[in-house]
Every structure is written in C-alpha cells, then in structure tokens.
Design a protein that fits this description.
Elements lengths: L2 E5 L8 H14 L4 E5 L5 H13 L7 E3 L6 H8 L5 E5 L6 H9 L2 E6 L3 H16 L5 E4 L7 H12 L3 E2 L8 H8 L4 H4 L4 H15 L2
Parallel strand pairs: 1-4, 1-5, 2-3, 2-4, 5-6, 6-7
Helix pairs in contact: 1-2, 1-9
Length: 210
C-alpha cells in the first residue's frame, strides 16, 4: 500500500513544489513507483512536469501525474494507493477546505519553512491545524543560509511551540531553482553533489517519519 506524502504550508514560497519535485525524482530514480498531485493554484509542479517531458520525453519521466476532485480526494487516493509506492501532494499555500481534505488523506505532512520571522508567524497556525487533524507535522528548514543566527533563533521558537523539526535541512543553493526550471531534480544532475545529499537525507528522514 502506497504512502501519501503532503508538502504543505500556508506561507507561499516556502519551497513545497521544489521539495515535491526533488523527492519524486529521488524515489523514482531509486526504483519506486511515484505519482504526484498538484493542488497548488500556481501549478509550479505541473510546469515542472511539462518541462521534464520536454527533456526526457513523454514516456520516460518516471513519474505519473494525477488530476483530482477535491470533493472525493480521499476516495480517489485510495484507488491509486495500490499502484504506487509514493503519492506526493503539493498543497495550496493557504488554509482552506481543500488543504484540510489533503491533510486528512495523507500519511505524512511535511512543512517546508524558510528561516525568517514572516515564515515562522505564518507556519505556527498551520501546525496547530495539522495537529487538530491528528497528524504529526514535521518541519523541514528550507533555503537555509550557512551560519545564519536567525535559523538558530527560529529553531528555538519552533521547539517552544512544540513543533518537530527535521534534522536534515535544505540549503539555499542556486542549483535547486536552476534544475527545477528545466524539469529536473538535483539527483538527475549529480547524485554525489552536496545538493543531492541534502535531498537524500531529507528523503530518508521523511521515510522514517511515516
């Protein structure tokens, strides 16, 4: 039975689509069957998939795409869970009825957060809503600058709120944006690069928390 993995945060620009794409590539390249659902109105993940098809060809991207009816999301996901090892959902950047349905249907909720006061303030209410749905959200610090004191301050504040924070982090390397723009993941480009190692570490931690 496949696992439904949701990347969600009401704060836009947190890196949900980038993480969704890179984790889909990691697991697909590792031999798993992967499907993605793009529930973000900006449709960044849909754009990424279209670029991936241009790069690799329609039949060789290793990742399937599913449209969905939010009214029946839970039932639709149940139908395809037996076909895939992982179903990755890129959620809307808002707390809406749609977001709640996605959270309910998920095995794991993962929350990308940039280390800034604005992102922190936007994230705390979302964490509470996820907990009310009996989920245990895991925060993934994203676009982390090296030796940033603000990151340490944010970690303390998040821990004070009771949040669980992943040990693995994603840096602010330009390669994440560059590879996303052409429909690729950092794993595709160089599996031994520092950026690829970050994705591998985050992927392993996500699996441990499902």
């Amino acid at each position: 039975m496949g696992k439904v993995i949701t990347f969600s945060n009401q704060k836009g620009g947190s890196g949900k689509s980038t993480l969704s794409a890179n984790l889909a590539v990691l697991w697909s390249n590792s031999g798993y069957k992967v499907a993605v659902i793009d529930a973000d109105p900006q449709k960044s993940l849909t754009y990424w998939l279209s670029e991936r098809k241009k790069y690799y060809g329609d039949d060789d991207i290793g990742i399937n795409f599913y449209n969905f009816d939010i009214r029946n999301l839970a039932e639709e996901v149940k139908k395809i869970k037996r076909k895939y090892d992982f179903i990755i959902i890129d959620s809307p950047p808002a707390i809406t009825f749609e977001t709640l349905q996605i959270i309910k249907a998920s095995n794991g909720v993962f929350v990308p957060v940039q280390p800034s006061p604005l992102d922190l303030m936007a994230t705390l209410p979302f964490l509470q809503i996820a907990r009310e749905e009996k989920k245990k959200p895991l925060i993934i610090l994203n676009r982390v600058m090296p030796r940033a004191k603000l990151t340490d301050a944010m970690i303390l504040r998040l821990r004070y709120s009771g949040a669980k924070i992943a040990r693995s982090r994603i840096s602010s390397k330009v390669i994440f944006a560059e590879s996303f723009a052409v429909g690729r993941g950092v794993i595709d480009i160089n599996v031994t690069s520092d950026a690829a190692k970050e994705i591998i570490n985050v992927g392993n931690e996500i699996l441990r928390n499902l």
